[in-house]
Amino acid sequence: MPTVNAYAAPSATEDLVPTTIERRAVGPRDVLIEIKYAGICHSDIHTVRGDWGPQQYPLAPGHEIAGIVTEVGAEVTRHKVGDRVGVGCMVNSCKECANCLAGEEQYCLKGMVGTYGAVDRDGTITQGGYSTHIVVTEDFVVTIPEGIDLDVAAPLLCAGITTYSPLRHRGAGPGKKVAVVGLGGLGHMAVKLAHAMGAEVTVLSQSLKKQEDGLRLGADHYYATSDAGTFEALAGSFDLIINTVSASIDISSYLQLLSLDGTLVNVGAPAEPLPVNAFALIGGRRAFAGSMIGGIRETQEMLNFCAEHGIGAEIEVIPADKINEAYERVLASDVRYRFVIDTATL
């Protein structure tokens, strides 16, 4: 089994450290990818610190992966050596259940296999993109179109598809009013994508300190949720709200901002429950929904859409030895808007 350089967490309470991990040999339908860039997602921090449950360590996180194909198995037909490719939040599924057959592998009824910290079909624990190489079955590798640089493409594999999927599914477009809660790694992508789809976009953020950025990224309006008057002024305003915040917020207050038959979709994943007042739902036939990444087909659609509209993530590229510092800055909301690791520094 090939050994590659990586950064991994030895435990839930220790900093990530340089190490080596094993990758499986390239099988008949596998693709070997030389990783060029790996985004840092808030999910990485939640996972390695055990916020979402116990993990097996050492654990190399990372599910926003952009790189170049360097080897393919004998039966691979979708990719070839030299292709620009990406890997997102999953690397396998049963491929047989109704959801997989519908192209919604993220909702595999037998459980999709996450890119890191998950048990793969062969019983091994997956290790993620904070590494120089990864081996993935071709069905879970997407093509990064020309016109999107690999560094700004990496976060699209999670932050991009996580926001694109509910926007598409819920009909964001001309004539629709969309609000985005939080202007961070997910939120800034939601703003860019909703704007490109033709919706009228409003950012709802704790303060106005990122207002200039929000308007530059495509928002039409920007409000501070710390101002109680915001909830009065915007009551009943939105067809769709995308909540990108990975922390507990007063969901019922945000539900009141929906118009008749409006929907609030949660894509942030806080460790704490989010209580909902039933009257906030039934009073306007409103819906509170969730969404998790997207299937492989939709992820490719998202990448093609981003290439067509010139969309990439707003990033800060860092060397591997700044990963732990980056984690602390993410937790302090001190990044605009995604850290991306240059894996040549591993």
UniProtKB/TrEMBL annotation:
Residues 11-341 form the Enoyl reductase (ER) domain. It comes from the Bacteria. The keyword DNA repair does not apply. Its cofactor is Zn(2+). GO terms for molecular function: alcohol dehydrogenase (NADP+) activity; zinc ion binding. InterPro entries: ADH-like_C, ADH-like_N, ADH_Zn_CS, CAD-like, ER, GroES-like_sf, NAD(P)-bd_dom_sf. It comes from Arthrobacter globiformis (strain ATCC 8010 / DSM 20124 / JCM 1332 / NBRC 12137 / NCIMB 8907 / NRRL B-2979 / 168). SUPFAM superfamilies: GroES-like (SSF50129), NAD(P)-binding Rossmann-fold domains (SSF51735). This is alcohol dehydrogenase (NADP(+)). Belongs to the zinc-containing alcohol dehydrogenase family. The keyword Flavoprotein does not apply. It catalyses: a primary alcohol + NADP(+) = an aldehyde + NADPH + H(+). PANTHER family: ALDEHYDE REDUCTASE. Its EC number is 1.1.1.2.
